[in-house]
Amino acid sequence: MISCALTIAGTDPSGGAGIQADLKTFQELGVYGMSVVTSVVAQNTTGVQGVHHMPASFLTEQVRSVRDDMPIHAVKSGMIPTVDMMRAVADQVEHMDAPYVIDPVMVAQSGDELIEESAMEMWKERLIPLATIITPNIPEAEKIIGTSIHSVEDMREAAEHICTVLGASAALIKGGHRDGEALDVLYDGSEWEVFTAERIDTANTHGTGCTYSAAITACLSQGHSLFDSVRISKEYVTAAIRESFSLGHGSGPTNHFAWRKERSI
After folding, report:
1. Confidence (pLDDT) at 259
2. N or C, fewer C-beta in 10 Å, the chain?
3. Is 209 designated active site?
């Protein structure tokens, strides 16, 4: 039977991030993708021009429509901007017997805020404890734990805090904002792993966080271990950045089919 993955997130009409990036990633990794829209976002490579949030009740209705009819082998969430939406997602995820990946979408790459400040505590209390893995970059991790991150040791401490204090089963702190090689730290509550890749000199990184977490979700839906899911996904997103597109007037999108193309050469 085909593996099925569900993404709960906002849209990106320019195709590089959000639900569009998630579904492209699921497809490229051989997974049947399903989606629930939290917010319709007017955005492109230069930033966010407008946002329209779905009512929380309709968010619940979308998830139930999928749950009642389709298998869900893994689920991820991205942009969940309001307290009511977070409560609705938590209520639904609690009843899913599937790995849950959180991509903590708080701020767009352009700097636009994508989550209400009042929603942060609800997010920590209800969603993070449900997470199989949460995948913050360094600025997101700093916002979650409330302290600055400068070193690899700081990244380790942040991951440990998210697991032991906030209750996530695992945390992947992504080091793309640091200098040097692209180094990510994974902590699963007992063991550490470090994943590295070459740093690629490009400004075209729109949607990398969505793509990375979607790849992890796809791999988990196929039964891969957490370690292998992150390893494969690191390779996938690195290839996508390496062969990214110079499209638009801002930070261009990554190339979601680069990994498959590189493997077929």
Report:
1. 81
2. C
3. yes
